């Protein structure tokens, strides 16, 4: 898959997990079958309901199993993980489609660890990065406009695994 194709997919609202899945599956097929595979995957990720996505994913796995069994296996094993974003409320999904927040945090941690150069021990690295993470958490907690506002979410409609994190 080319970089231009990935940029187009990210602009279409695909999550990072979906793009990673597309990338990995694209590496498992021949160049001639790549266009057909991508078209099928777009259809799988199109619906907003988990059950429909899973049903379409199973249909696609059956279709591709004879030609590329590794694609079918990957689809069956990893589709559920790619659909984790559907468990969140509608207004949170848009923010989850971008990895900007995570990339920003990783850049900040990398910047701080490069200043030190070589750490005397693993625990000293853990302390420095832990202090940075605590600082970021305090900053996020003190913000007036939170990135994910769970106060206006009806928790009875949210799956149990997400309610525990909120």
In words, what does this structure look like?
This protein has 166 residues and is mainly α. The protein folds into 2 domains: 3-87; 99-165, no CATH class. It contains 9 helices and no strands.
SSE sequence, one letter per element: HHHHHHHHH
What gap, in angstroms, lies between the N and C termini? 37 Å
**Uncertain segments:** 1-11
Beta percentage is under 5%
Helix content: 55-70%
Number of distinct helices: 9
| Backbone CA Rg | 20 Å
> What shape does the CA trace take?
flat
Number of strands: 0
Structural class: mainly alpha
Sheet having the most strands: none
Oligomeric category: single chain
How confident is the prediction overall: mean pLDDT? 79
Number of domains: 2
Describe the SSE topology:
Layout: H1 3-11, H2 16-26, H3 31-45, H4 50-65, H5 69-82, H6 90-96, H7 100-116, H8 122-142, H9 160-165
Which short descriptors sum up this protein?
166 residues, mainly alpha, 9 helices, disordered N terminus
Summarize, please.
The protein has 9 helices and no strands.
């Amino acid at each position: 898959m080319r970089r231009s194709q990935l940029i187009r997919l990210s602009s279409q609202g695909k999550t990072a997990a979906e793009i990673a899945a597309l990338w990995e599956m694209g590496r498992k097929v021949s160049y001639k079958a790549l266009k057909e595979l991508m078209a099928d995957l777009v259809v799988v990720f199109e619906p907003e309901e988990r059950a429909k996505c899973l049903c379409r994913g199973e249909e696609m796995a059956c279709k591709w199993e004879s030609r590329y069994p590794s694609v079918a296996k990957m689809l069956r094993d990893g589709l559920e993980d790619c659909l984790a974003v559907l468990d969140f409320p509608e207004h949170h999904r848009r923010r989850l489609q971008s990895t900007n927040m995570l990339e920003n945090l990783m850049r900040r941690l990398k910047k701080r660890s490069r200043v030190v150069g070589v750490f005397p021990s693993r625990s000293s690295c853990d302390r420095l990065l832990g202090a940075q993470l605590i600082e970021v958490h305090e900053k996020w907690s003190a913000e007036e406009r939170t990135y994910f506002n769970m106060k206006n979410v009806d928790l009875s409609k949210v799956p149990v695994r997400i309610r525990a994190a909120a």
